[in-house]
Amino acid sequence: xxxxxxxxxVVDLAEWSKGTRSERIRPMARxxxxxxxxxxxxxxxxxxxxxxxxxxGGWLIVLCTKGIDGFTNVGDWWSEPIxxxxxxxxxxxxxxxxxxCGFGPLNNxxxxxxxxxxxxxxxxxxxxxxxxxxxxxxxxxxxxxxVLYAALLVMTVIALLSNGTGPVPELDTTVGLLPVWQIVAVxxxxxxxxxxxKVIFLAARGEVYATLTVTFLCTGVDxxxxxxxxxVVIWMGAAISKxxxxxxxxxxxxxxxxxxxxxxxxxxxxxxxxxDDLRPGRLSRLFAHGATAVELLVPLVLxxxxxxxxxxxxxxxxxxxHLGILTAVPMGVPLEWNVFMIFGVLVLFVAHADLGLxxxxxxxxxxxxxxxxxxxxxAGNLFPRKISFLPGMRYYAGNWDTTMWCxxxxxxxxxxxxxxxxxxxxxxxLERFYGKDRAQIPMYMGYAxxxxxxxxxxxxxxxxxxxxxxHEDEYTLTDGExxxxxAVGWNFGDGHLHNEQLIAAMQERCHxxxxxxxxxxxxxxxxxxxxxxxxxxDAATGEFERGVVYVADMVTRQPWADDVPVHVRDNxxx
Length: 574
Prior knowledge:
This protein is of the alpha+beta class and about 575 residues long. The protein has helices at about 15, 20-35, 40-60, 75, 80-95, 115-120, 145-160, 180-195, 200-205, 205-215, 220-240, 245-255, 265-270, 280-305, 310-330, 335-350, 365-380, 410-420, 425-435, 440-450, 455-465, 480-490, 500-510, 550-555; strands at about 270-275, 275-280, 400-405, 475-480, 515-520, 530-540, 540-550, 565-570.
């Protein structure tokens, strides 16, 4: 790959364009298998620089605390409990303004590279309340929503610039912890905002940082032990969600896109038989099973070992685990999250290795917190249509709700006129960046990425059923992630953000004609079933078909397949 130019597939555009969608995806999938997306080196360095700025920003904020001094004297203060508290809130702020997950070109964001704060401080943008409860009706952001979001930002900054409350002998600190009223204020604002717009809560990575902020309501050593419990649930919850047939496909796709694995010959080994059989090979399965075992078992060692050589080895393994994800630069770029998790390993499990369940003063709140978050993880795996993959902690599992939108040019024009947005439609962004002719290549590379995952086989099968026969050439296929990015300002692999709720909100604003927008909605696989449910929806007339596809049929096919058997369960009038 070049330093400034992407390494895109070389095809004869005229001949390639004559092929079917499946035929056009095939060379893209093969390119992905040995090159990845072909990201320029400069772009990877850009993200490295962003991670560096994240670290520097947190460093400077911590030094604003009375009793913590010395930019280079990190060894004197890095393990202070208030430092961990501030890093949690700082990372929450970093995410909720749009600088973390989902930022920039590696998440198909070009102009501008993020949305989030640019949308959520602007009235009349789309908001998506999670439930139908009083005072949350509607999908239009009001001045009240803007004020609440601004208040969350201000309150978080106030907490970050605050001093500790004084000595806590049992934690061996003279600096102390953040004032509890500030913690309550941040949590209350985030909760109210989340009830009016689930997008902001998820963008704040509420399942991680809000949950850890809840632990700050504890006192003394209970703060540290409760935070350890949250970390263990995150790791083990994520590991349990990987006990499926999808995860090896994630590994092969991620490793072939990794800038660390640069040799094409090595990348090809992650597949069964390059270039004809691009199912995950033995190396991918080894990585997948090994990573799942590490994430499931090593956290228990960290939690119960309480120091010494065993704790050191376990900590090194978990740091290496997150470095592996970080250096692979996965799509969605959750880079700062992995840096934070490494920091958490060192502070909670190394610096405070001696603290465990036996040291709790009040175990009941910690037990309740464990039951709640573990229960959400369990429910998220059993009923994925009801719970986002983020609180369900199905990170990297390859088992997510997804959508594919079939959009006519007339509908794209209506979207541009009808919704309040910062970014233009995805195809327009690609054309601006690559030029109109070449834009088809990165667009199909995006299709290839989706197809390299198991659900892509089903999506590209179901789009044939979604579009009226004989009219497929009238539509542009657009990943729901990209629609979501334009419409609500944030996206991160979560089909819950671009399901029927967003379709209805856009229909209300754009008034699509029947047939102008058709959407395939594919639910994630419940952990106890071998199926994924789907729905086909016309934006103007509603759902017209539903059914299931079998995971066993998806994992045996190639990325360019669009012939997964479909089992129709119910038909509604078109």
